[in-house]
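yo

u said u wanted the structure for the complex thing, so here. seqs first:
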Amino acid sequence: MSPKPRVAVVGGGVAGLSAAYALREHAEITLYEREPHVGGHAHTVEVEDQGRTLGIDTAFVVFNRPAYPNLSAFFDELGVEDERLLSGFHFFDRDTGVLFGSDEMELPAEEVAARYPEEFRTVFHEVRRFHEEGRRDFLRKRTDIPLGEYLDRGGYSEAFRYGYFILLCSAVWSVPAELIWEIPASTVLAFFMAHDEGGLGGRRVDWRTVRGGSVSYVRRAVAAIDPKLRLSEPVTAVHEAADGVTVTTPSGSERFDHAIVATHADQTRALLTNPTPRQRELLAPLRYHASQVVLHTDASVMSAERSRWEAWNYGKVTVDGQVRTYVAYYMNKLHNFDSRTDYFVTLDYPLPLREECVIRSFRYEHPVIDMAMRGAQRTIYEVNEGTRVKLCGSYFHSKQQFWDQIGSHEAAFSSGREAAAQLLRELGHSGA
Ligand SMILES: Cc1cc2nc3c(=O)[nH]c(=O)nc-3n(C[C@H](O)[C@H](O)[C@H](O)COP(=O)(O)OP(=O)(O)OC[C@H]3O[C@@H](n4cnc5c(N)ncnc54)[C@H](O)[C@@H]3O)c2cc1C
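structre next:
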């Protein structure tokens, strides 16, 4: 029997783990990870709380079975338990005191007309219009334009854009307001059509979280893969030659038969020393944005009406004369645990937090989903044909879910699996 090929997997996020998992019986795997832990955006902070350990996720946290079929099957295979999320969304304007949420979105139109102020009535009607017209426009292929342009053409109000839409989109794609208008309208509509047209946090989606935090699945995956683990070892170069791949880190270079590079597109661009023309062309236009994410206990980020707190909370506030928006996840509800302490994760919170309340802060980078990224999806998987270095990550779409499923855990997981399947096919494994 010929020895198993040696494969380097660069990046231990879900894309790298997925590829390594699919290759585990057919290759000798070395997993390089820059950080001291594996998981990437599957990043749980374990907090001591009343004599027990609570796993609180700080980036990837929710999934649902219909829109995450490959990831869900992986979790089932690993025996990962999940928690049903019973919550919704809550919006509050800290300047005007206006607040509404999933409850109000489900009211009959007559009741809204009779009881609610102008600002909310506008939002309520435009939300309905957006989902109705959007569905039709999507099917007629009129939505392959940036979201901002689509909303301009439809004459949508500022109240709808800044008092609702921006907030939902920052929660879904983890990007700030100014980048939201660049997201293809088709991608936004595809997300809402596949989920709850009332918006993220509406109650018609069976959202789930990993019990104990996503670290629970990461630990099981690593145990099943059993790779040579090279933690805290940033790869600085990946060089492909006709007969192998050289991976370089600050501790030296190592030769492999193949490599899977599962870092972000901009990082991959910097790592590949001799990219193929197709790799260069794919990676060149892809952009990333960094968000400041803080796990903390400072309740000043929430609205004063505690009874309205939901899993997803969207705040709007004027700071130094500028309207700023932010997302605050209420982790007790998201992870479905009881505690005397309230835990929050905020994304790009525009005001100072009380220092003594801060548990951990992170800077997470996320792809900017714009027309260039969507356009790249048409042929993105061809980049891995016939190369010793295969690429994957959340900048690839999930093949089963079409081009608009980009940026999520399902997309990243699926791309890792596809990269491994491509390699196995080229190595002559049937059924890959
Ligand atoms: C705040 C936030 C919340 C999110 N919430 C959700 C959610 O609820 N649901 C959802 O589906 N998606 C969510 N996402 C999207 C998330 O990014 C994807 O789901 C997915 O985790 C990305 O996986 P990845 O493997 O492509 O990248 P990553 O998880 O970022 O993994 C890349 C890995 O490569 C490593 N690396 C980088 N450079 C090197 C190097 N030179 N050498 C070695 N290793 C290197 C990194 O350290 C990292 O571990 C969220 C993202 C953010 C930022």
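The mean pLDDT is 93. The CA atoms of residues 171 and 327 lie 6 Å apart.
cya
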